[in-house]
Amino acid sequence: MGAKGTRADVPPSAHFVHDEDEGELAIDGMGLSTIAEEVGTPAHVYSASAIERAYRAIDASLAPAKHMVCYAMKANGHPEILRLLASLGAGADVVSGGELYWALAAGIPPERIVFSGVGKSDAEIAYALDAGIRAIHVESEPEIDVIEAIAREKGVTARIALRVNPDVDPVTHPYIATGIHGTKFGLELDVARRLLPRIVESDGLELEGIACHIGSQIGGAKPLEDAVAIVAAFAKECAEAGAPIRALDAGGGWPIHYGDEDAPYAPWNAFGAAIRAGIERGGASDLDLEIVVEPGRAMVGDAGGILTRVLYVKEQGTKRFVIVDAAMTELLRPSLYGAYHAIVPVRAREGDVTAADIVGPVCETGDFLALDRPLPPVQRGDLLLIRSTGAYGAAMATRYNARPLAAEVIVEGDAYRVIRERERVEDLYPRGA
Ligand SMILES: Cc1ncc(COP(=O)(O)O)c(C=O)c1O
Ligand SMILES: N[C@@H](CCCC[NH3+])C(=O)O
């Protein structure tokens, strides 16, 4: 994502660190080979302390403004991660009835949950209204009709926010740009403007916020500021038209360092500051809006890695294939977006660094974790760590090729806990077959 490179260096973090005494990589002081031996590979490993640090840093970046951090749980909806974030005070951004169910089950209060998505079913809208969530984010004109009708039927007022498309380039991979014209997300500003009078007059709707989400892994804080300035100016128009606007939701998209960036991203403080600056530029400072943000990747991405073992090293002509037991089934991002993830041996061997394709066992040419990647010598049985996979790793896992879902473990303090047992082949057999 962003500029693709072939650098072998690793993004900085405080939790995956080389343990000099043991001569291997450790996560929060726990040797990765111990985890691999006990749990097997491939396995997703997460650092609870890293998740907590990320949450606190994002939260602090928005202070002193009134704000709410709604974790975009699509990045990693594991119940233990949700519970951890709930205990720290996070809300949630959900995109389905299933995610809403999991967020509530993890103890996230309904008034801290927002519901985004272009295709909410009637049942999902009814569920959100029954649960009394903070706001349903409206993404199309017909969706407003449906929400209004369901609210009327129930005799309730639906709290909504309009997700507008500010047409700002987020400087990211085209598959995950969401706030430019031509994508399916959000309402064009002129449509939102046209709908305003009927929303304000409706007794079934309460327009409590304006939202945007310009994309994921955005290329800097400036596009966020530009988008927020547009959204804030529209929030002001809505308030002047009589809507009880109390929130500006700036979406998520805060980037992490994967290791192939040409230049480091601005620190998260800059993203919080950009949102505050955007509100001022949009002339909405006097509205005293609560800032809502929906980061997913930034909360969990760097906290996780995938442990994988080398199955075979295959030399073919000038090519070196390192075939490992993880695949696109555990990490789809390289296959789907050509995304870069740093991959490092848990125990480094001496020798020349040469290029290798690091690939999985899945029967697809596109099943690769890295192409032409500089890598020191590795042998069958060696452990590798794939970095920065806490977001959109396990969350996008599939069982393609009848591959059971991998184990997941979380390190808390000086111990680790298995939070998903490795599936067994029997678990894959279709129910009802
Ligand atoms: C509406 C919405 N909010 C938040 C996010 C989270 O994005 P990220 O993980 O990049 O922070 C997404 C995904 O792009 C999204 O669609
Ligand atoms: N799955 C994407 C991000 C999707 C963002 C959701 N709107 C990724 O791995 O980067």
Automatic annotation (TrEMBL):
Give the matching CDD domains: PLPDE_III_DapDC
Q: Which Pfam families match?
A: Orn_Arg_deC_N (PF02784)
Q: Does the keyword Amino-acid biosynthesis apply?
A: yes
Pathway field of the UniProt record reads: Amino-acid biosynthesis; L-lysine biosynthesis via DAP pathway; L-lysine from DL-2,6-diaminopimelate: step 1/1
Single GO BP term: lysine biosynthetic process via diaminopimelate
Among HAMAP family, the record links this protein to: LysA
Positions where N6-(pyridoxal phosphate)lysine occurs in the chain = K74
What UniProt keywords apply to this chain's record, in alphabetical order?
Answer: Amino-acid biosynthesis, Decarboxylase, Lyase, Lysine biosynthesis, Pyridoxal phosphate
User: Mind telling me what this protein is named?
Assistant: Diaminopimelate decarboxylase
What molecular function terms (GO) are annotated for this protein? diaminopimelate decarboxylase activity; pyridoxal phosphate binding
Taxonomic lineage from the root: Bacteria, Pseudomonadati, Myxococcota, Polyangia, Polyangiales
Record function comment:
Specifically catalyzes the decarboxylation of meso-diaminopimelate (meso-DAP) to L-lysine.
Q: What residues bind pyridoxal 5'-phosphate, as annotated?
A: G253, E294, P295, G296, R297, Y392
Domain Orn/DAP/Arg decarboxylase 2 N-terminal, chain residue ranges per copy: 50-300
Give the originating organism.
Sandaracinus amylolyticus
**Which reaction(s) does the protein catalyse, per the Swiss-Prot or TrEMBL entry?**
meso-2,6-diaminopimelate + H(+) = L-lysine + CO2
Query: What does the record give as EC number?
Result: 4.1.1.20
User: Member of which family?
Assistant: Belongs to the Orn/Lys/Arg decarboxylase class-II family. LysA subfamily.
Q: Where does substrate bind?
A: R297, R333, Y337, E364, Y392
Describe the protein's quaternary organization and the partners it interacts with.
Homodimer.
